[in-house]
């Protein structure tokens, strides 16, 4: 009887079926000749930081570089906190929590003081909703609870009618429901947490 193939005993020059790997199959970022993209060929923001230019589906999963993908939010999106809450809610309501997460993450990066924790928690809740829509119950429960803890601990000013206590309750209730019953019985409405009262 042979040992199962694990990362420790797998031949790095062969795929799981035992076929020889090409340079491109070992690293999906390589071109067919096995070359990595040069710094000049990578998509970068004005500050020189690399951006992920790969197209994505509606739930943020990377697609093949030749695919059309969903429209992405601009990398330089600058919203007021009130606008960020409004846009994030619209995206959650439209079944696009990954995109809501991007809006909330930008607000998190721009925030200061105790508001950073609030925005981080909201972004984590949106990621939890994304995991639920992708069928990942464990990831959904973990991120919904983590985000709920961060949001529930906020005691400062809140933007745009945001109701941290209600958001925390809704995220905890959804996490508990998923942990107890799984994802199969959830409806689209179950995955539309209200950020505002």
Task: Name the descriptors.
6 helices, 197 residues, 0% strand, Hyaluronidase domain-like, mainly alpha, disordered N terminus, globular
Considering DSSP H and I runs of 4 or more, what fraction of the residues is helical? 40-55%
Low confidence ranges: 1-9
**How many beta strands in the DSSP annotation?**
0
Rounded mean pLDDT score: 81
Instruction: Report the CATH topology name of the domain at 81-191.
Output: Hyaluronidase domain-like
CATH-assigned homologous superfamily of the domain at 81-191: TTHA0068-like
Note the gap between the termini: 62 Å
Provide the structure class: mainly alpha
Strand content: under 5%
The top-level CATH class of the domain at 81-191 is Mainly Alpha
In one word, what is the shape? Answer: globular
Describe this structure in words.
There is one protein chain. With 197 residues, the chain is an all-alpha fold. It contains six helices and no strands. It has helices at 23-26, 81-93, 97-110, 115-134, 137-152, 164-181. Helix 3 (97-110) runs antiparallel to helix 4 and helix 4 packs antiparallel against helix 5. The longest helix is centred in the middle third of the chain and has 20 residues, at 115-134.
Layout of helices and strands, plus pairs?
Elements: H1 23-26, H2 81-93, H3 97-110, H4 115-134, H5 137-152, H6 164-181
Helix pairs in contact: 2-3, 3-4, 4-5, 5-6
Describe the structure concisely.
The chain has 6 helices and no strands. 29% of the residues are buried.
